[in-house]
């Protein structure tokens, strides 16, 4: 579970596999993540799955970028001197610290490409992960373009309906 998200997590509420129909005052069960139930007010967002994927991809990308920056700083510091075994071990650790989160991003981008954004928030989230990609994520970019073209909200903002 991502600890940075501000959600209430209830474990052990409903048995695994039971549908989530219970309501408690203003709080509604909205979806299941693993075996934990997440609570939110009102109806779930239409692009909730896409927003979660994009959030996680951006999180891991930020982690990888910070680790890569530390790796490059270490490489530059060691470039002016003779490398020791300790320097090589540190370099390997820093490279692994970059590689692990970076490897978690690609599958998330693939999943995000397969989900269609139906709201401006979903389109914006997809645009954020396209812009973070070093290569431009060709297939994801095409998916974003299709979502932009299919969005009635964007078409309405470009060509507003005129009153007759």
Task: Give short descriptive properties of this protein.
164 residues; four-stranded antiparallel β-sheet; single chain; alpha+beta; 5 helices; elongated; disordered N terminus; 4 strands; 58% helix
Model description:
- The model is unreliable at 1-37 (pLDDT under 50).
- Helix 3 runs antiparallel to helix 4 (138-150).
- The protein has two domains: 8-41, no CATH class; 48-156, no CATH class.
- The protein has helices spanning 48-79, 85-114, 120-132, 138-150, 152-158, and strands at 8-11, 23-24, 27-33, 36-41.
- It has five helices and four strands; from the N terminus they run E-E-E-E-H-H-H-H-H.
- The protein has a four-stranded antiparallel beta sheet with strand order 1-4-3-2, with no helix packed on it.
- 58% of the residues lie in helices and 12% in strands.
- 19% of the residues are buried.
- By secondary structure, it is an alpha+beta fold.
């Amino acid at each position: 579970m991502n600890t940075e998200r501000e959600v209430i997590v209830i474990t052990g509420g409903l048995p695994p596999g039971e549908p989530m129909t219970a309501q408690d005052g203003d709080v509604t069960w909205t979806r299941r993540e693993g075996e934990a139930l997440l609570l939110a007010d009102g109806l779930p967002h239409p692009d909730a799955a896409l927003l979660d994927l994009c959030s996680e991809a951006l999180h891991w990308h930020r982690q990888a970028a910070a680790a890569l920056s530390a790796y490059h700083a270490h490489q530059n510091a060691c470039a002016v001197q003779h490398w020791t075994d300790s320097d090589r071990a540190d370099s390997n650790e820093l490279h692994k610290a970059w590689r692990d989160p970076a490897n978690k991003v690609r599958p998330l981008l693939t999943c995000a490409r397969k989900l269609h954004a139906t709201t401006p928030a979903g389109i914006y989230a997809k645009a954020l992960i396209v812009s973070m990609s070093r290569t431009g994520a060709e297939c994801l970019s095409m998916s974003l373009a299709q979502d932009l073209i299919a969005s009635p909200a964007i078409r309405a903002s470009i060509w507003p309906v005129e009153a007759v």
